[in-house]
């Protein structure tokens, strides 16, 4: 039997997460039965969605939710032979026994020069989120002007690059001067540090005086209240996240956008990436092709050590990362 390290949710978050919300435990993994495999985690993802989903999907004492890239080290399942690599929603565990449900093998022709950790980033769920939000929700067209906030994160940075591939003008909002420089490296047409501008409204107007056709929303809260009036008539808004509200203990209130949305005839749609799961293989190959062609840059913020999962998670929520935040076991 293999001993696995796990991080459990000791108590639900109230406000911003603290070390006391997490507890490191050991558990014994049984020998795999027929149809089962034993996985060893190589890279684990920390993502903003874990904060609100923990309240909706988890009970105190449960293993923290999350996705990992893992290697099959024992197998009684011919679909997952020893030595192959998979992406699985195994939570914050170093080892997992699985019957294969929910496991996805990495692309069969995954290039040797491309880090497998990108299967948790631009060639994984965040990349798919960016692609589906742009194509399926926003219906992005060449010549559109796109606004994306949290633009230096895993999703936002991919959103901006895909939009440039598609011939759009891209404006990015982010939270540090180093992140602004990163967005410029990626080819964003305009980028600003929302923490240092004197007026968010004026920054948005200056970046695109004629307004925005599309808004890829990752932040919510007061940013949304300022951005929505900057939309063009018949503008489209994709609601991907609301990280500015995830740690609130008291819900934020107004101003409310209804009249602006009515008069400008705006379309706003929330979405979850799993809606288009049937398209994932083809979409992942498109993302990989852009990566190999040099059109898609993939920066990672890597934390070493499974014991540092909570610190990596809290750091990501505070915006410490540029690009995708991952933990290397």
Automatic annotation (TrEMBL):
<dbReference type="Pfam" id="PF16884">
    <property type="entry name" value="ADH_N_2"/>
</dbReference>
<dbReference type="GO" id="GO:0006693">
    <property type="term" value="P:prostaglandin metabolic process"/>
</dbReference>
<keyword id="KW-0276">Fatty acid metabolism</keyword>
<dbReference type="InterPro" id="IPR011032">
    <property type="entry name" value="GroES-like_sf"/>
</dbReference>
<dbReference type="InterPro" id="IPR014190">
    <property type="entry name" value="PTGR1"/>
</dbReference>
<keyword id="KW-0597">Phosphoprotein</keyword>
<dbReference type="InterPro" id="IPR041694">
    <property type="entry name" value="ADH_N_2"/>
</dbReference>
<dbReference type="Pfam" id="PF00107">
    <property type="entry name" value="ADH_zinc_N"/>
</dbReference>
<comment type="similarity">
    <text>Belongs to the NADP-dependent oxidoreductase L4BD family.</text>
</comment>
<keyword id="KW-0521">NADP</keyword>
<feature type="domain" description="Enoyl reductase (ER)">
    <location>
        <begin position="15"/>
        <end position="327"/>
    </location>
</feature>
<dbReference type="GO" id="GO:0047522">
    <property type="term" value="F:15-oxoprostaglandin 13-reductase [NAD(P)+] activity"/>
</dbReference>
<keyword id="KW-0560">Oxidoreductase</keyword>
<dbReference type="GO" id="GO:0032440">
    <property type="term" value="F:2-alkenal reductase [NAD(P)H] activity"/>
</dbReference>
<keyword id="KW-0644">Prostaglandin metabolism</keyword>
<keyword id="KW-0007">Acetylation</keyword>
<dbReference type="GO" id="GO:0005737">
    <property type="term" value="C:cytoplasm"/>
</dbReference>
<keyword id="KW-0443">Lipid metabolism</keyword>
<comment type="subunit">
    <text>Monomer or homodimer.</text>
</comment>
<dbReference type="InterPro" id="IPR013149">
    <property type="entry name" value="ADH-like_C"/>
</dbReference>
<protein>
    <recommendedName>
        <fullName>Prostaglandin reductase 1</fullName>
        <ecNumber>1.3.1.48</ecNumber>
        <ecNumber>1.3.1.74</ecNumber>
    </recommendedName>
</protein>
<keyword id="KW-0963">Cytoplasm</keyword>
<dbReference type="InterPro" id="IPR036291">
    <property type="entry name" value="NAD(P)-bd_dom_sf"/>
</dbReference>
<dbReference type="InterPro" id="IPR045010">
    <property type="entry name" value="MDR_fam"/>
</dbReference>
<keyword id="KW-0379">Hydroxylation</keyword>
<dbReference type="InterPro" id="IPR020843">
    <property type="entry name" value="ER"/>
</dbReference>
